[in-house]
Amino acid sequence: MIRRILIIRPDKIGDLVLTLPMATVIKELMPEAHITFLVREYTASLVSLCEDIDEILLYDTSSSLWKTVALLRSAKPDAVFFFGSKFKLTLAAFLARIPFRVGRAYWWYSFLYNKKIYEHRKTAERNEADYNVRMLKAIGIETAITPLPKLQRDLLPKNELSINNYAVLHLKTGGSAPAWDENKFIEIAQWLCSEKNYSSVLTGLPEDYEFLFRIRSRMKHNSKNVHILTQSNLLQLASVLAGAKIVISASTGPGHLAAALGTPTIGLFPQVVPLSKERWGFRGKKTINLSLLYFRKRNAHIARIAFV
Questions:
Q1: φ, ψ for residue 80 (rounded to 5)?
Q2: Per-residue pLDDT tens over the stretch 49-105
Q3: Rounded-to-integer distance, Cα 285 and Cα 155, Å
Q4: Using CA atoms, how far apart are residues 167 and 226, in angstroms rounded to an integer?
Q5: Which residues lie closer than 8 Å to 298 by C-beta, 6 or more apart?
Q6: What is the pLDDT of residues 246-279, one digit of tens each?
């Protein structure tokens, strides 16, 4: 009988957020199950917000194969789930003799899985979170609903921003998808300031600071209404996203996180099918996902749809 489940997710924020619903489904249908997530140290604090996860393992990508085997064994899993290309971890799970090893059937090393998933995702027939939850069928867990992850907002640190009414604009994609025209973001920021009296917070990584500084300098309204937040502390970022009136984001992790936290969020996605909103759209109760081509045909005042 399967009692302990290990989910391998040493990936970026967006991939992780879209995997968290698996934990919720498992706990709803197998409340006695023990769920462990293996993640990088960078995202561990984010996983700690999810009330359905019992244990977190930290994975160092530079670890040797045998150290990785020992790490997986320490979770004592009956079943392990893999996503994307994870050869060393897959081999480690095989060597650790984990009874049920679940992964997609289309990698060259997929023979190491004894529960293979024959489902192509590039056709974008459903959201990535749905694809992930459907993998649970391999161990007998089936559901027609993909819930939102249960993130505990009360565990977030105090928001360090000294402003109340603000919108978060996340321009960069980290290369995961084409970025939207920065001029459109500038136009939206101006509209939010003039029509809603919102300040703007531009978010990104530390290496994005110079780029974001140039964007701020191009905004015609008073620069005191435009703030830049570049940091790697995910809990503080989550606190800022949770406190925003609205988040407008390209297809990347902060948008997924904002939507999961319940913040009104607009997602901007390319029309390329494998990268589209149909597959990678943000999931939340107050979320709107739009195509980039749609935006090219409208002015940036489309942001007002979030307030209808």
A1: -135, 140
A2: 999 999 999 999 999 999 999 999 999 999 999 998 899 999 999 999 999 999 999
A3: 20
A4: 10
A5: none
A6: 999 999 999 999 999 999 999 999 888 998 999 9
Answer whether residue 134 shows pLDDT above 90: yes
Contact 59, 10 (CB under 8 A): yes
Question: What is d(CA 65, CA 94) in angstroms, rounded to the nearest whole number?
Answer: 11
| CA dist 163 → 37, 196, 199 (Å) | 35, 14, 8
Residues β-bridged to residue 103: 116
Q: What are the chain's domains?
A: 4-139 (3.40.50.2000), 156-307 (3.40.50.2000)
Residues 20-50 as b or e (16 or more Cβ within 10 Å = b): bbbbbbbbeebeebbbbbbbeeebbbbbbbb
Host H or E run for residue 89: helix 87-95
Lowest mean pLDDT among 23-37, 212-226, 271-285: 212-226
pLDDT at residue 222 in the model: 58
pTM: 0.92
Residues 6+ apart with CB under 8 A from 233: 45
8 Å CB contact between 148 and 18? no
Strands in 34-39's sheet, in edge-to-edge order, are 55-58, 34-39, 4-8, 79-81, 100-104, 115-117
